[in-house]
Amino acid sequence: MPPYFLLAFLPIFAAMGVNAEQYKAIKKELGDKVTLVAVSKIKPVEDIYALYELGQRDFGENYVQELIEKQALLPNDIRWHFIGHLQSNKVKYIAPFVHLIHGVDSYKLLEEVNRQGGKHNRSISCLLQVHIAQEETKFGFNEEEVGQVMEMLANNKKMGLLQNVQVEGLMGMASFSDNEQQVEKELLFLKMLFDKYFTASPELSRPVLSMGMSGDYKLAIQCGSTMVRIGSLLFGARG
Ligand SMILES: *Cc1c(COP(=O)(O)O)cnc(C)c1O
């Protein structure tokens, strides 16, 4: 009988999937105009550390609990991006350290981020998530809502409110589709909104357009992305 008991000793948290060659190739491709966020959700801290040792500092996580556990174990100079759907009641857990919250999809959430930023005496950077895909399930504002939020933000800032939150740009996820024309149409739509509200903003030195994942990052860069979120190409497929 095979020694199955040995399986119990397998180092399941060993760094397994990090593709160093791929990482270097992507970094080169992006140059210094496009920021790479390495999406490490579900991947072990050993994998994150392996990429850290290659020089990567921006990492993206989707789940609050997982993010705070990893943050506690890894070096302090990592810039943690929260890219998942964030519930208002969980902002407090990531407020002390989070570098950029990508998926803000309600004004209420923005107010809570501001409140928690105030408690920690800092201004927390955020992106507004825009729904650009055909799939119904994805979160985000529509075009009209983006306009409304930008207006409310501007009014509040004029009154000296919302000083502890900084909206730096937009984030979106295109359809998971092989139809490149459809994906391109969605990415260009997001770029159009970004240009309308952020590109010429006098307050922002480097506005952020977060779009592009493993499957569509090349297209996203062509369409004007300034920040790509890449997971599986760097860490291997997730489960
Ligand atoms: C998981 C995830 C990614 C990375 O996806 P890959 O296809 O693995 O590159 C990017 N953005 C968001 C919002 C995600 O949830």
Task: Describe it.
The protein is an alpha/beta fold and about 240 residues long. About 40% of the residues lie in helices and about 15% in strands. It has an eight-stranded parallel β-sheet with strand order 7-6-5-4-3-2-1-8. The longest helix has 20 residues. It is globular. It starts with 19 loop residues before the first helix and ends with a helix. The N terminus is likely disordered. Pyridoxal-5'-phosphate binds next to strand 8 and helix 9.
Topology:
Elements: H1 20-30, E1 35-39, H2 45-53, E2 58-61, H3 64-73, E3 79-82, H4 91-94, E4 100-104, H5 107-119, E5 124-130, H6 143-158, E6 165-172, H7 180-199, E7 208-210, H8 217-222, E8 227-230, H9 232-235
Parallel strand pairs: 1-2, 1-8, 2-3, 3-4, 4-5, 5-6, 6-7
Bound molecules: pyridoxal-5'-phosphate.
The site of pyridoxal-5'-phosphate has 13 residues, from β8 and α9.
Key terms:
8-stranded parallel sheet, binds pyridoxal-5'-phosphate, globular, 239 residues, alpha/beta, 9 helices
Short description:
The protein is of the alpha/beta class.
Give the overall shape, derived from the CA principal axes: globular
Strand order of the largest sheet: 7-6-5-4-3-2-1-8
Q: Compute the number of helices.
A: 9
- The beta-strand count equals 8
Report the mean per-residue pLDDT as an integer.
92
Listed once per kind, the bound small molecules are: pyridoxal-5'-phosphate
**Alpha-carbon distance between the termini?**
28 Å
The profile of the biggest β sheet is:
8 strands, parallel
